[in-house]
Amino acid sequence: MKRATTRSSAGLSKNLVIFGLAAALVIGFAAGWLVRDAREPADSDRTMAGPRDEAMAGQIEKLKALAAADPRDASAWARLGHLYFDTGQPGPAVAAYGKYLELKPGDPDVLTDMGVMYRELGQPDRALECFEAAIKANPGHEIARFNKGIVLLTDKSDKTGALAAFDGLLRINPNAKAPDGRPVEELIDQLRPRTESKPGMLIGK
Fold first, then answer.
1. Which long-range contacts (CB under 8 A, 24 or more apart) does 159-168 make?
2. For residue 188, which of 23, 65, 106, 166 is within the disulfide window of CB 3.0 to 4.6 Å?
């Protein structure tokens, strides 16, 4: 997973994984759909080798030292959490994000990233708490709403709750699209029984 670096009125993130084309595939592959939302861009995928590994490890050590020297440096904790996220270390990422949130409570972007890391740790309930806190802090946070739906669908087997989360996303942005340009409304409709209304029909204008 990458951190989302851009969002527009037309799409959730350039790093969203493209949705499946059938409901069975949607359910089968949704486990990999969580999206990161943070303010600093990731330079590459989590998979790195050689000098890149060493560079990232060096950055982590520098930030650990910086945070230890000044534990009230919120930026250092956030950047450290991002590096742990990008290098696939969810436990340390959660710890670093927790330190940041002690200093800057309610940051919806960091809460969203923390939720992704809790999900990586096999703690979907904690992940949902983070996504819900992010939505409370910023009701227009599209990625937190999307991730909440994914966790409800794949980890909690709560299809009704997932559809409600996705419908909430569409109310925020009726034109939300996946990276391939496919409307989220069309894709989510694959999960909804044909006897129910389409998500877009619930959006009032």
1. 159/191, 162/191, 163/188, 163/191, 163/192, 163/199, 166/191, 166/199, 167/199, 167/202
2. 166
* Least confident window among 39-53, 73-87, 96-110, 148-162: 39-53
7 and 15 Cβ atoms separated by less than 8 Å: no
User: Which SS3 state, helix, strand or coil, does residue 158 take?
Assistant: coil
Q: Which domains does the chain have, with CATH numbers?
A: 3-202 (1.25.40.10)
* Across 51-60, average pLDDT: 86
For residues 136 and 30, is the Cβ–Cβ distance under 8 A? Answer: no
Model confidence band, residue 112 (pLDDT cutoffs 50, 70, 90) = very high
What is the number of other CB atoms lying within 10 angstroms of the CB of residue 205?
Answer: 3
- SS3 call for 177: strand
* DSSP code at position 191: G
Q: Give 2's pLDDT tier (boundaries 50, 70, 90).
A: very low
Strand ranges for 12-87 from DSSP E: 36-37
How far does CA 78 lie from the centroid of its chain? 15
Residue closest to 15 by CA, chosen among 78, 118, 32 = 32
**Collapsed DSSP state (helix, strand, coil) of residue 4:** strand
AA letter at 45: D
pLDDT at position 15 is: 32
Q: If 0-12 CB within 10 Å is exposed, 13-18 middle and 19+ buried, where does residue 160 land?
A: exposed
DSSP for 82-109, please give it: HHHHHTT-HHHHHHHHHHHHHHSTT-HH
What whole-number distance in Å separates Cα of residue 134 and Cα of residue 143?
10
